[in-house]
Structure formats: structure tokens, C-alpha cells
Design a protein that fits this description.
The structure is a single chain. It is built from 24 helices and 6 strands. The protein has a two-stranded antiparallel ribbon. By secondary structure, the protein is an all-alpha fold. The chain has 2 domains: about 5-300 and about 400-580, Sodium/glucose cotransporter, CATH 1.20.1730; about 315-390, no CATH class.
């Protein structure tokens, strides 16, 4: 069977499965729509949480970052996995014991303030829409290549799929859909990793293959060969880092703390029956997440080796089929700078963060990149990093069914997180803004309708952001983690562990933390991207890591304001004790 036919078959069957599950488990009440009725088994919830959290950034983009950044890409591995441990230990059980529907619900009640609830909703919307932009971008990339449609049309198709199972099924439908999506994405990630590890090293286990010798008779280990190849081409060694120590520290910490403040992950712990189940659920999720995250470094290293072998010093007329496939979608391109008709990788900045748009044909038949600054270095091949995991099976000449499986897995990863984020947005608007703030008299039926309308509107906005993203997938997601670290995490943390923190302090801290971090990211990524260099960064901290400074500002402002304003009411101290003190039923 032809590869393209297999792709249509695998993607079609996976979509049919997701939509069928959503229809079968359609939410009939607000409790089912928001938290799946609060009765999800911890193992099931752990798997759904893993799928919700391992987004397009994890599946599609992270190994691409590692492939082209080497040692510097380790910040994403450390930050995202470490953050989940932080979430499981510090927040998840206490928030479940609180027993409400949403993060703004906790903040509004804990800080006895509708204003605090509204500010939390605003923070949540900023975080969620930033995060979802990366997911929809990932959906567009997968559809663009494997279903042979423009990226923008791919985003629109993804919007339609998410609409069906998120808007109809609510959290109940999404939970069981995400279980299926986890199975698809982890199988799709691991199978090609086994194949490629065996082809390169003779060891089918990628985690072990990364530390094995290469099957070329040289006796070199994988990382040794990669270092030598890159240094011969004029690049820095793969295992050396170029980021400053402070930037590595801040990016890692921002990702860790941001993970613990992500609303679409936190809400998953409201879906289990009790606090002890939240702990079990977190443990299972970490196990499921580790399967992918321990594999990603090997996938990134193998992808970089295969990419160089497949492209460097190859005649363009003899370019491999995979290159032509991705080139036709404007996600890879070549500029023949020396006129020899060969594709050559060279020193400079060859790997562009944004998509490559080829706008004309050169004398050797090449598709020319539209960025004229590309002429400033000796490199001739330009590639969008987000394609590397998706292209890896094609580069390695794996069977067509593996390529089709990766296509289905990439879509599963992006759509699972997109659905979770959309539900967080819709529940915040319908439950926290309408029911709990502006229209407390609304009926349950009206609230459910409002939630579905809000989800529909959110899908439209998410699609727009997916078509016009502010960066590549994992970078956009990193910005969302920074916003979460600077806004929601301090308010949640102090709400659980500080009886003295009051509404004035929490509100001031969230506003300052969110504003500072958003403006910093916006300046360097949206309004003045040409100034986004280390020399212009505050304390040498990149936009990906600035959430740490925003978090510190949040804590400092909140504590200072709370010190000079009245203490919370006595019942709030009782609420904090109730959340923190264990009971036998927990």
C-alpha cells in the first residue's frame, strides 16, 4: 500500500476513534463538562494528563530543538520533567482537596475576591492562548506535509476536529479521548526511535543507543561522531553549550515553575475522586511522560546525524525524496550561493526559527528563501526545526506505515493539548466570569451552553494564532510557561502555604508578574525582534527564561502589599488549614 494511502488511513482511523469516544462520553452536566464528574481512575487520569501535557512541543518540536541546539536543548528536558515533580508534590493534592472546578475558582475563593478571580481568568487566558498557538501551529505542519494541504488549511482542519470532541464531550469526553491519544502518540514516537537506533548503532533501545558506537566501523560513539562532524563543518561541538549559565538556569526554572502553574494540567487533578488519587495520578503521569522524555535526546541526536548525511554535499538534482516533499510545503529550502549545484551546510545560523517561505527559483532549480539575510553566512540549506521528528522516518528510509504512524502521533499530541486548553478557557469564562462573578443566577443549562459557545470562540482565536504564531512551536510554548510562572504559580503557592497572604497582595502580584513578563516577551518577539540578542537582554536572560524574574517580582510585590494591608478573614486561615492538614479519607 502506498505511503500516502497509509497516512490517510491511519489519520482517518485515529480521528474516527477520537470523535467516537467524544460522542459516546458526551457531557450532560456542568460537572461532567468541567471535571468529568470527578470520578476518573488515577491510572486513566495519569495517562490523560500525560497526553494533555505532552503537546506538539514535546512530540514535534523538542527533539528538533535538541537536534540543532545540542547541549543547550537540555533545558527543555530538565525544566518540563522537573516541573511536573514540583506540581505533583507541592500543588496537585492540595488543589484537589480544595474540590472546585478551576484554578480561578481556587484563587477567587482563597483570596475572597471577585477581582482576584477575574485577574486569574485574564492570566489564564493569556497563558492558554499563547500555549495553544504552538499546538495549532503543530497541527498545521503535520497536515501540510502528510495530507498535502497548505499550513493554514491544516490549522483550519485541526480546528474543526477539536471543535467536535472538545465542545461536545467536555472534560469527560476529552479525558477518555486523551487516553487514546496518549497510546497513539507514544507508540508513534517510540517505534521510529527503535528503528533508527538499531540502524545507526545496532541497539534497538534508543536510550542505550545514544551511548553506543555508530555502525560505520569508526568505533566512535554517537555523540563523539556528532561532535567531530559538526566541528569539521565549522559549527560548535554538539555537546558544548553556548547559552550563559544564568540563562540556562532561568529557562529551566521558568519551565519548571511554569509547569506547576499551567491551568490545563492542574485542572486534571480535579477529575479524580480524592486527594490521595491526585498523588497517584501524578505518579502515573510521570511514568508515562518519562517514556517520551528519556527517548527525545536520542531522537534529536539521530535526527541531526541523518540530516547531515542525507543533505550535505549532495547534488540538488539528486536530492532525496524527503527533501523535495518538505520543500514543496515551504518548510525546507536551498540557496545555491557558490553556483556549484550542491547543497552545503556551513558555518553561520543555518536553522531558521520561523518557517521558510520559498518565493522563486534559482539557476540550479533551487527554491530560494525569501530572507535575504540568509546570504550573510556560508550555509545553503534552511530548515524549520519543527519538521525534524516528522521527517525523521523519511530521512532514515523507514517503511511507509511508520511514516503514517508518526503523522497520526503528531496530530494526537497537538490535538490532545489543544482540547485541554480550550476547555480551560471555556470553563473560566462560563464558570468563573459568568456563574461566579457576573451572572450568578444563570441556570446549569445556560452555563453549559455558555461553556460550549466560549469554547467555539476560543477555537477561532486559537486557529488565528496557529496561522500567525510568534515563533516555532516549542519556543511559543516556552513563553506560555514563563507567563504561568510569573502570574498563577505564586498566587497558588502562597494561597496554599501562607495564611497571611491577602487579596490585595495576590492581585498586585499577579498583575505585576504577568505585565512585566508579557511586555518583555512581546518586545523581543513581536514588536522589536531585531533587538532580540543577548546584549540587550535584562541580566542576560532570554525571553524564554524571563518568567523567573516575573515570578520573583510577583512574590516581592505580593508580600510587600500584604504586609501593609489588612490580614485575611479568620475563615480563610481555616480554609488553608483544611486544605493542608491530611485526613484519613485523603
Amino acid at each position: 500500500m502506498a505511503t500516502q494511502t497509509l497516512i490517510y488511513l491511519f489519520v482517518g482511523l485515529s480521528f474516527a476513534l477520537y470523535i467516537g469516544i467524544a460522542i459516546a462520553s458526551r457531557a450532560g452536566s456542568t460537572s461532567e463538562f468541567y471535571v468529568a464528574g470527578g470520578g476518573v481512575n488515577p491510572v486513566v487520569n495519569g495517562m490523560a494528563t500525560a497526553a494533555d501535557w505532552m503537546s506538539a512541543a514535546s512530540f514535534i518540536s523538542m527533539a528538533g530543538i535538541i537536534a540543532f541546539s545540542g547541549y543547550d536543548g537540555s533545558v527543555y528536558l530538565m525544566g518540563w520533567t522537573g516541573g511536573y515533580v514540583l506540581l505533583a508534590l507541592l500543588l496537585a493534592p492540595y488543589l484537589r482537596k480544595f474540590g472546585q472546578f478551576t484554578v480561578p475558582d481556587f484563587i477567587g475563593t482563597r483570596y475572597y475576591s471577585k477581582a482576584a478571580r477575574v485577574v486569574a481568568v485574564i492570566c489564564l487566558i493569556f497563558i492558554s492562548f499563547t500555549y495553544i498557538a504552538g499546538q495549532m501551529r503543530g497541527v498545521g505542519i503535520v497536515f501540510s506535509r502528510f495530507l498535502d494541504v497548505p499550513i493554514n488549511l491544516g490549522v483550519i482542519i485541526g480546528m474543526a476536529i477539536v471543535f467536535v470532541y472538545a465542545v461536545l464531550g467536555g472534560m469527560k469526553g476529552v479525558t477518555y479521548t486523551q487516553v487514546a491519544q496518549y497510546c497513539v502518540l507514544i507508540f508513534a514516537y517510540m517505534v521510529p526511535a527503535f528503528f533508527i537506533s538499531f540502524l545507526i548503532t545496532g541497539n534497538p533501545v534508543p536510550q542505550l543507543g545514544l551511548g553506543s558506537t555508530v555502525n560505520d566501523g569508526s568505533g566512535l560513539y554517537v555523540l563523539q561522531k556528532l561532535d567531530l562532524v559538526l566541528q569539521d563543518m565549522g559549527f560548535a561541538a554538539y555537546t558544548s553549550g553556548e547559552k550563559s549559565t544564568i540563562d540556562v538556569f532561568c529557562i529551566t526554572l521558568a519551565l519548571m515553575v511554569g509547569t506547576a502553574g499551567l491551568p490545563h494540567v492542574i485542572v486534571r487533578f480535579f477529575t479524580v475522586p480524592k486527594a490521595s488519587d491526585a498523588r497517584k495520578s501524578a505518579g502515573w503521569a510521570l511514568v508515562f511522560i518519562a517514556l517520551l522524555y528519556t527517548t527525545a535526546p536520542a531522537v534529536g541526536a539521530f535526527a541531526r546525524l541523518n540530516f547531515i548525511d542525507s543533505v550535505n554535499n549532495v547534488e540538488y538534482s539528486q536530492a532525496p525524496e524527503w527533501f523535495k516533499n518538505w520543500e514543496s510545503n515551504d518548510l525546507i529550502a536551498w540557496r545555491d550561493k557558490n553556483g556549484d549545484g550542491q547543497m552545503q551546510l556551513g558555518k553561520g545560523d543555518p536553522f531558521q526559527g520561523a518557517p521558510v517561505f520559498a518565493d522563486s527559483t534559482g539557476p540550479s532549480g533551487e527554491r530560494l528563501v525569501s530572507n535575504e539575510a540568509a546570504d550573510d553566512n556560508g550555509n545553503e540549506v534552511y530548515v524549520d526545526r519543527d519538521i525534524m521528528v516528522l521527517a525523521n522516518p523519511e530521512i532514515a528510509n523507514l517503511p511507509g506505515w511508520v511514516i503514517a504512524l508518526v503523522a497520526a502521533g503528531g496530530l494526537a499530541a497537538a490535538l490532545s493539548t489543544a482540547a485541554g486548553l480550550l476547555l480551560v478557557i471555556s470553563s473560566s469564562i462560563s464558570h468563573d466570569l459568568l456563574k461566579s462573578t457576573f451572572r450568578p443566577q444563570i441556570t446549569e443549562k445556560g452555563e453549559l451552553l455558555a461553556a460550549r459557545l466560549a469554547a467555539t470562540a476560543a477555537i477561532v482565536v486559537a486557529g488565528y494564532l496557529g496561522i500567525y504564531p510568534p515563533g516555532w512551536v516549542a519556543q511559543v510554548v516556552a513563553f506560555a510557561f514563563g507567563l504561568a510562572a510569573a502570574s498563577l504559580f505564586p498566587a497558588i503557592f502562597m494561597g496554599i502555604f501562607s495564611k497571611r497572604m491577602n487579596r490585595e497582595g495576590a492581585i498586585a502580584g499577579m498583575v505585576i508578574g504577568l505585565s512585566f513578563t508579557f511586555l518583555y516577551i512581546g518586545w523581543f518577539k513581536l514588536w522589536s525582534p531585531e533587538s532580540n540578542v543577548a546584549a540587550n537582554w535584562l541580566f542576560g536572560i532570554s525571553p524564554e527564561g524571563i518568567g523567573v524574574i516575573g515570578m520573583l517580582l510577583n512574590f516581592a510585590v505580593a508580600i510587600a502589599v500584604a504586609r501593609f494591608t489588612s490580614a485575611p478573614p479568620r475563615e480563610i486561615a481555616w480554609l488553608v488549614d483544611k486544605i493542608r492538614v491530611p485526613r484519613s479519607s485523603d
